[in-house]
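fyi for ur records
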Amino acid sequence: MFENIIPHDYLYAILIIIGSVICAKIFYFTLKQYVAKITAKTKTTMDDELLETCHKPIYFGIMLIGGYYALNYLRILAPYKASIETLFVVAGVGLSAWTLIKIIDTFVMHHTTKDKTSRAQKTVFLSLKGLINIFIYVIAIFIILSYFKVEITPLLASLGVAGLAVALALQSTLANYFAGLYISSDRSIKIGDYIELENGLKGHVEKIGWRSTQVRTLPNNLVIIPNAKLSEMIVTNYSDPTEELSFSVNCGVGYDSDLEKVEKITISVAKKMLKSIDGGVETYEPLMRFKNFGDSNIEFSIILRVKEFVKQYKMKHEFIKALTKEFRKNKIEIAFPCLNIYNRK
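which gave:
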């Protein structure tokens, strides 16, 4: 009956399109109602996010396949069969590339939105995402060109020469970029760390960018260091593996001093400072050691500990004041350099 109203090929095409729509709807419903409930029970949200990302591309993929077979049944389009096939191949490659890019974007967003992810790690993930997306686009274009029987070997050679020229022109920029990726991924230097470079520069790491790293010194000056140079330097990180830091204060007392008394007073003052000064490690037991018989005094050092590098300056300042006061109170001489001359007759 329908053949008298609708031509045979048109009828089949319509049925295929309706069937593909129904299949796509069923697949979409199954993912939403059943698969989503299974992934919701897992500990990670990664599978839920990937499922949400993939259901639309799969839906469009089923529709695309249905459209291809439906058009192939139309006799009126038989002369254009090659063109239709080409159109759907391009659409299929494009859909595949788009789906892959969405999956990578979902993976990156999942990791960059975590609270535990540092700014350095986010920079690495986003940079790699951009490079991978470009690579996917290039591969998709090459697949399409190869389908059109375009000789891609000369094109690759041309791109290689062009890429070499660009790489030479941007050699410094690229070196800084990849060095920045290495610094960020290696995590030997992180935002907020207090570092010292081999040239003596000290400061807090304020930013690790794609071209340079910014270090803010204690006088509040911002020093910008190219990543390529920073990656080749010897760096002392005072914040890794822990921010707690021990430092020593050197002193000396006269030769007529009671050394037992000197040690007792020094340890007592050190303990008091560690508990009263902000940044001191209260539980740390200060360590004192006599070192040398100097030219005019007996030299010793006392080791203290603070919670972070910059706290040592305040601690040292207050400790020297308090120790000097206690030594004077107990009539212990902090000898200054002197020279005794003996006249032999």
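The two ends are 145 Å apart (CA to CA). thats all i got for now
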